[in-house]
Design a protein that fits this description.
Blueprint (H helix, E strand, L loop, with lengths): L2 H16 L4 H5 L1 E2 L3 E5 L2 E5 L7 E5 L2 E4 L2 E2 L4 H43 L1 H6 L1 H19 L8 H32 L3 H15 L2 H31 L14 E2 L2
């Protein structure tokens, strides 16, 4: 049956949609670092290419465990960089959380078109709402960008699939089986075509809804993101190399 295919597309929709309005893409600045915001400072980490570890707090800068000597004006810029990041964090988390909500509603619409019985029974809503609430709690509690970037959204999507897959399989499979047992092979075939029709293009439709809803809010944050790029200009790591926490997409 095509319920498994539908569930896979639901996962792709959720992951793609929730990550569609990425600050880096929209504002033309991105980072190769994972950022963790702690009370004791900002922590930037990546697996390769030095500096692998960058720490900022109260105008102090450390790279790969070595303190960087800073002029007073550079200390001011480091302090302002940290302050700006702390101001941006709740706004970015709110975008991720709202993106999850929007994507989930759109996914429900797609799934309900192919499996109306599951939607009308309330099982689909219950499973989806419970999982979405859990994901949003994790995003709210998180202090690391790793928890709301695209890879994380894909993991969240797989959790949703594990919840809704049995519901979709039971609904679509049961309906098709009943049609076939009643001799309505044409109806069973039409059901398969309906599910396939929902699956085709579903990811693009969900992503488009999230993008349209969040674009103005993402664009509104771009000046603050670009200011971070300006603040890092001229800063160096402990070895004298330019410090590039944010990179232009050009």
């Amino acid at each position: 049956m095509r319920a498994a295919s539908l569930a896979f597309v639901v996962a792709a929709c959720f992951a793609g949609g929730a990550a569609a309005q990425d600050l880096g893409t929209t504002c033309n600045l991105a980072s190769t670092y994972d950022l963790t915001v702690r009370p004791e400072g900002l922590a930037f980490d990546r697996a390769d290419v030095a500096p692998r570890s960058v720490r900022m707090h109260d105008g102090n800068l450390t790279t790969d465990g070595s303190a960087v000597s800073l002029r007073p004006d550079e200390q001011d810029r480091v302090a302002l960089f940290e302050s700006q990041v702390r101001t941006l964090l709740p706004k970015v988390k709110a975008l991720a959380s709202d993106g999850v909500d929007i994507a989930a509603r759109a996914v429900r619409q797609e799934a309900a078109t192919a499996a109306p019985g599951a939607a009308s029974s309330g099982e689909l809503d219950q499973a989806l709402n419970s999982r979405v609430a859990d994901i949003k709690r994790r995003i709210a509690a998180s202090q690391s960008t790793k928890d709301w970037q695209e890879d994380a959204m894909r993991e969240y999507a797989q959790e949703i699939v594990s919840d809704i897959m049995p519901i979709l399989t039971q609904d679509v499979g049961g309906e098709a089986m009943q049609l076939a047992m009643n001799g309505d092979l044409q109806g069973a075939a039409a059901l398969r075509d309906r599910v396939a029709g929902v699956s085709n293009g579903a990811q693009e439709r969900v992503a488009a809804k999230v993008t349209a809803a969040l674009r103005p809010r993402v664009q509104a944050l771009c000046p603050q993101v670009r200011q971070l790029g300006e603040l890092q200009s001229g800063l160096h790591d402990a070895s004298g190399r330019p410090l590039v926490l944010l990179e232009s997409g050009n």
